[in-house]
């Protein structure tokens, strides 16, 4: 194996700037998409459990649709297909005037996709709460809305902090798919540096280290959240 | 046959077994009893090396259980064990449960193992259940299969770890009957149990444990007639006079 | 605007070829990944600190990496190590196998831990060795418990194979894109791709659910 090492390449301009830029977009896309995913995912997840049939069905359709199509295809649908099938003016707006079209599309696509996964976690959190809790709530005269608002949802979120952590980590990794529609985030930049300099080892190592640092940071942050969210002495039955 | 000399065991800094010594001679039946958490299940699991111990020595038929050069699988195959929760393998039929160790440990052929299994199933009264899976049997039936599984290896001694504790009351006797029969045939047995009727009927000796110590180790009649320690007296009065 | 779905019919043989490659990659990477994952899970649970640490490091390393980056890595590394171009398929296969093994091993570890300790004690008590207890008692039960989760992960893997698009390996996704660009029919082709993936993955997940119900869980 012949290879000319040159770790210095990572710290020369413009490559150093590219890497910093890439980290910026990775973090921006991920966090913005997470906000969408968390909001929609919560609504859909709760909707999956409510005692109203059509609401449950609609939520199920959402989850199945977004979960069973690869994220890459979804991004292409948002980016290439949606502007064409919308009413003419909207499509033109998306193509010509929407700010940062690639980034915006990536955020929306990643957000809607991840929402389906968050929804499943929220649902399983609510379903993990013993049925006796609902009965106790109803027995004291709570309405269904109050039951969700004061008992089921608060408990469910505390239970699902660990799986949500893993979804939150996944969104950072999945943000790399944004490169397929032209967002120059971390992974895209590392490949770009490889193509310009042939220093693949250095460039990909840099990207790898960046993702590991992101993972460690997020994990540490979520450990704190989990500690705060824990209910003392509460153990769910079954699993 | 089974000798325990000054056995000590810790779970981290919890002292589960304290200086335990006793002897079980060939053909003897010894019942180990005591309050829950007294260490009796741990003690019996030390005998076939399922639980390691830190001090003392246990020998079975002259072989040291904790010895560095001891081949535990070989030793274990000579000691039968029956568990509280049966621990039959749920993914195998009753016959396969009994044949597995015969084939894999003793190297018996399939046909010989099956014949042995059938003989033992007949003996415990379950020859018609051979092709079923454990989940299709009652608890009492499962425990009898578990006994047959242990006997299939022609053990020189049998260990029973609360064999009837997980059973519904109406199934306890069908298991005890098999055990009584085994005792009468002269099998060396160490039995952890709360079944004092069984102890009275077949045990040669009773070992009473409390807080990880062997508090009393006496002939059966002596134990039930006039237990020396207060703790054993209290235990007996609780267990014999419950409503 | 007009839709022209005839373009799909014309390109069908080409697309099916791509789909074949997607399936092949899924099956090979899943098989290889599961074998490696069993080794990783057993190392993790072995009780030997060093083995357990190596396994944990492997799993956590791959789980913190985006799959696309792993694909880039191996497309760069494999030819460099072997010293000559080997064709994209093998690079992709190695990348997917090593990557998926990290995820499978967590599933298998949970599966092994779902088998009660009493079962292991029962195996030991009849004189079975560690390897025999694992092989005949623990792993068969673990795999039975895990089958639904393993299949679900297989569906995820199938979706993930679409990412070989980034290195232009001709799976279904890349084939779709080639047709879309050549014929200028992006809408039809991407909607078609979405439909095909959806039908396959949804059917797969329905099957998994039926399996779960049959197991009574």
Describe this protein's structure:
The complex is a heterotrimer of chains A (239), B (243) and C (217). Chain A is mainly alpha-helical. Chain A has helices at 15-47, 53-67, 71-85, 88-96, 101-128, 131-139, 144-159, 161-174, 186-197, 200-229. Chain A has 10 helices and no strands. Helices cover 38% and strands 25% of the residues of chain B. In chain B, a hairpin with a 2-residue loop joins β4 (55-60) and β5. Chain C is 82% helix and 0% strand.
Write the layout of secondary structure elements.
The complex is a heterotrimer of chains A (239), B (243) and C (217).
Chain A: H1 15-47, H2 53-67, H3 71-85, H4 88-96, H5 101-128, H6 131-139, H7 144-159, H8 161-174, H9 186-197, H10 200-229
Helix pairs in contact in A: 1-5, 1-8, 1-9, 2-5, 3-4, 3-5, 5-7, 5-8, 6-7, 8-10, 9-10
Chain B: E1 2-11, E2 14-24, E3 29-33, H1 40-47, E4 55-60, E5 63-64, H2 72-77, E6 79-82, H3 94-104, H4 110-123, H5 139-151, E7 157-161, H6 169-184, E8 188-192, H7 196-202, E9 205-210, E10 213-219, H8 220-225, H9 230-240
Parallel strand pairs in B: 3-8, 3-9, 6-7, 7-8
Antiparallel strand pairs in B: 1-2, 1-4, 4-5, 9-10
Helix pairs in contact in B: 3-4, 3-5, 4-5, 5-6
Chain C: H1 6-44, H2 49-63, H3 67-82, H4 88-114, H5 117-125, H6 130-160, H7 172-183, H8 186-214
CATH names the topology of chain C as: MetI-like fold
CATH class category name of chain A: Mainly Alpha
Mean pLDDT of chain C: 91
- The number of distinct structural domains of chain C comes to 1
- Which term fits the overall shape of chain C? globular
β-strand percent of chain A reads: under 5%
Helix and strand element order of chain A = HHHHHHHHHH
- Could you name the CATH homologous superfamily of chain A? MetI-like
Main features:
heterotrimer; A: 239 residues; mainly alpha; MetI-like fold; 10 helices; 0% strand; flat; B: 243 residues; alpha/beta; six-stranded mixed β-sheet; four-stranded antiparallel β-sheet; 9 helices; 25% strand; globular
In short:
Chain B is an alpha/beta fold and 243 residues long. Helix content of chain B is 38%, strand content 25%. Chain B has nine helices and ten strands.
């Amino acid at each position: 194996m012949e290879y000319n090492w040159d770790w210095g390449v990572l710290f020369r301009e413009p490559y150093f700037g590219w890497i910093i830029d890439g980290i910026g977009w990775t973090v921006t896309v991920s966090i913005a998409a997470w906000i969408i995913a968390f909001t929609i995912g919560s609504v859909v997840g709760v909707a999956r459990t409510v005692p109203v049939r059509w609401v449950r069905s609609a939520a199920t359709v959402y989850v199945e649709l977004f979960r069973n199509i690869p994220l890459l295809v979804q991004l292409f649908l948002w980016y290439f297909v949606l502007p064409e099938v919308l009413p003419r003016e909207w499509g033109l707006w998306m193509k010509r005037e929407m700010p940062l079209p690639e980034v915006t599309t990536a955020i929306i696509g990643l957000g809607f996709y991840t929402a389906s996964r968050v929804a499943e976690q929220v649902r399983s959190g609510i379903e993990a709460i013993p049925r006796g809790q609902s009965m106790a709530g109803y027995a004291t005269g709570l309405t269904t809305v109050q039951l969700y608002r004061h008992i089921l949802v608060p408990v469910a979120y505390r239970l699902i902090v660990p799986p949500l952590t893993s979804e939150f980590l996944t969104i950072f990794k999945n943000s790399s798919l944004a490169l397929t529609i032209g967002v120059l985030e971390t992974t895209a930049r590392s490949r770009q540096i490889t193509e310009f300099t042939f220093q693949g080892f250095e460039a990909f190592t840099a990207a790898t280290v960046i993702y590991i640092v992101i993972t460690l940071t997020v994990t540490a942050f979520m450990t704190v959240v989990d500690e705060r969210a824990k209910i003392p002495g509460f153990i769910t039955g079954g699993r | 046959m089974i000798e325990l000399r000054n056995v000590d065991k810790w779970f981290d800094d919890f002292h589960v077994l304290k200086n335990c010594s006793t002897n079980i001679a060939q053909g003897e039946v010894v019942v180990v009893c005591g309050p829950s958490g007294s260490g009796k299940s741990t003690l019996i699991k030390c005998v076939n090396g399922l639980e390691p111990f830190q001090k003392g020595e246990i020998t079975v038929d002259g072989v040291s259980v904790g010895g560095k050069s001891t081949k535990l699988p070989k030793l274990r195959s000579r000691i039968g064990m029956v568990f509280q929760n049966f621990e039959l393998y749920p993914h195998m039929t009753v016959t396969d449960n009994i044949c597995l160790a015969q084939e894999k440990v003793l190297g018996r052929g399939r046909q010989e193992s099956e014949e042995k299994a059938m003989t033992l199933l007949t003996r415990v009264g379950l020859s018609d259940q051979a092709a079923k899976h454990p989940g299709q049997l009652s608890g009492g039936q499962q425990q009898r299969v578990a006994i047959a599984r242990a006997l299939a290896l022609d053990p020189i001694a049998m260990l029973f770890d609360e064999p009837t504790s997980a059973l519904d009351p109406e199934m306890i006797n069908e298991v005890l009957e098999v055990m009584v029969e085994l005792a009468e045939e002269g099998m060396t047995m160490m039995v952890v149990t709360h079944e004092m009727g069984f102890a009275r009927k077949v045990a040669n000796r009773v070992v009473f444990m409390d807080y990880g110590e062997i508090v009393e180790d006496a002939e059966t009649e002596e134990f039930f007639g006039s237990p020396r320690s207060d703790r054993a007296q209290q235990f007996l009065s609780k267990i014999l006079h419950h409503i | 605007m007009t839709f022209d779905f005839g373009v799909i019919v014309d390109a069908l043989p080409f697309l099916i070829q791509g789909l074949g490659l997607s399936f092949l990659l899924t099956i090979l990477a899943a098989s290889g990944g599961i074998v490696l994952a069993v080794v990783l899970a057993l190392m993790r649970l072995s009780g030997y600190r060093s083995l357990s640490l190596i396994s944990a490091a492997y799993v956590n390393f791959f789980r913190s990496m985006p799959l696309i980056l792993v694909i880039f890595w191996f497309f760069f590394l494999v030819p460099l190590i072997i010293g000559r171009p080997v064709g994209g398929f093998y690079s992709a296969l190695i990348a997917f196998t090593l990557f998926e093994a990290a995820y499978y091993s967590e599933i298998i570890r949970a599966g092994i831990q779902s088998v009660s300790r009493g079962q292991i004690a029962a195996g030991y008590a009849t004189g079975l060795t560690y390897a025999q207890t694992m092989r005949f008692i623990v792993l068969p039960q673990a795999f039975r418990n895990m089958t639904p989760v393993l299949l679900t992960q297989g569906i995820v893997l199938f979706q993930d194979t679409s990412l070989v698009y980034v290195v232009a390996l001709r799976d279904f996704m890349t084939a779709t894109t080639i047709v879309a660009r050549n014929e200028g029919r992006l809408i039809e082709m991407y909607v078609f791709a979405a439909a095909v993936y959806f039908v396959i993955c949804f059917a797969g997940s329905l099957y998994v659910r039926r399996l779960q119900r049959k197991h009574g869980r």
